[in-house]
Specification:
Elements: H1 2-13, E1 17-22, E2 34-39, H2 44-57, E3 61-64, E4 77-83, E5 92-94, E6 97-99, H3 106-115, H4 131-137, H5 165-175, E7 178-180
Parallel strand pairs: 2-4, 3-4, 3-7
Antiparallel strand pairs: 1-2, 5-6
Helix pairs in contact: 1-2, 2-5
Length: 181
Amino acid sequence: MVNSVIDKFRRRVEQRVLTKEPLSSYTSFRIGGPAEYLYTPCGEEDLVCALRAARALKVPTTVIGNGTNVLVSDRGVEGLVVRLMETSLQPVIEKGLVLARAPMPLCSLLDFAMIQDLSGLEYLVSIPGTVGGAIYMNAGSNDVCRQVDRGSRVQGSPGGAGAGVGQACELHRQSGRGDCI
């Protein structure tokens, strides 16, 4: 089982794993040493595959978004750093909930909410970063985390961590190796 997960990951990533990549290029403060390995998945399947392979190999793993307000040591990060990037997918409204992916910039989510004449996220207007970062950091100290259920969907107010990405981060968090940032 372990070898098949690792082989599947190797076939998927091809040339997309960077080694000793300076993380200063990926943070808003422009500081930070190198990631031992940096990988940017091209969707949910790639993300889940990377996290499973890292777990099977017992590689420490850190998941980051666009690096807003992230401080990285000059010594860098050991193991695999998985960088979530914004997808071209727009949020959707489903059963009264707005579903958005974790790497979506908050400003894009707020634009969507405004166009849809939705309210409830106004306190996030001045917060930089992504949907996932806002949830992880409990942005705006307005209890963003309380609005998110285990399925990574927001209850009541518009917003959300995005199905799949939130589930992958939960899988990663349960592994006990690393963090979702």
